């Protein structure tokens, strides 16, 4: 078990690759040693926010490395108001779709600028940050779809055991079935493949955001994506990141 907190920075990754620059890293020290934490280790920051290392890739042969912490606790909240598109989509719809690292950070920063108090799922995550700074590269944030895909692709049974051992809530229980978790990603891609092999070619960025389950499945009913619905919320933070592509 690790007892001391580490505050780390990570580089912006654009859809086309990575840059060696830091975003929003004011006051945040260098990346922690990737050997300091193993998968399913306990983590706590200086404010007492605790979590479990839910994803780790430090393979030297990989072009991108990271350590992601998932909060011990969770919340139930709506995503935010319907009728408001948040992420600025550009001319080429698919080219601008943020299916990559750090979209989550960018989205949380945009939400903060608009007023997190109007976006309950984000607000709950942002209130974990008591450093009196704008959302930055090691803040607790609402994870993007890509972030949660990474977390949920690991052994959720092992993750749940670690969460429970640390006094946290598991991702799902027998009485819960497969609950939905909000992501920071709006419904801004022009088609999705669902778990029942159907294809949906409709999208509605202003009114819908993407929830997924701990089994990494999309709900098959598009109305389930409405931003006003209340689903579970988990916060994440990156405590290590390295990218070799410039």
What does this structure look like?
Helix content is 15%, strand content 25%. It contains four helices and twelve strands; from the N terminus they run ββββββααααββββββ. It has helices at 103-114, 120-126, 145-152, 156-165; strands at 11-14, 17-22, 42-44, 50-57, 64-71, 75-78, 180-186, 192-193, 199-200, 209-213, 230-233, 236-243. It has a four-stranded antiparallel β-sheet. A two-stranded antiparallel sheet has the order 1-2. The chain starts with 10 loop residues before the first strand and ends with a strand. Residues 1-30 and 91-99 have low confidence and may be disordered.
Write the layout of secondary structure elements.
Blueprint: E1 11-14, E2 17-22, E3 42-44, E4 50-57, E5 64-71, E6 75-78, H1 103-114, H2 120-126, H3 145-152, H4 156-165, E7 180-186, E8 192-193, E9 199-200, E10 209-213, E11 230-233, E12 236-243
Antiparallel strand pairs: 1-2, 3-4, 4-5, 5-12, 6-11, 7-10, 8-9
Shape: globular
Helix content: 10-25%
Mean pLDDT: 78
Topology as H/E string?
EEEEEEHHHHEEEEEE
- Strand percentage lies at 15-25%
Unreliable stretches, pLDDT < 50, 5 or more residues?
1-30, 91-99
Number of strands: 12
End-to-end gap:
35 Å
Q: Which structural category fits the helices and strands?
A: alpha+beta
Please count the helical segments.
4
Task: Please compute the radius of gyration using only Cα atoms.
Answer: 17 Å
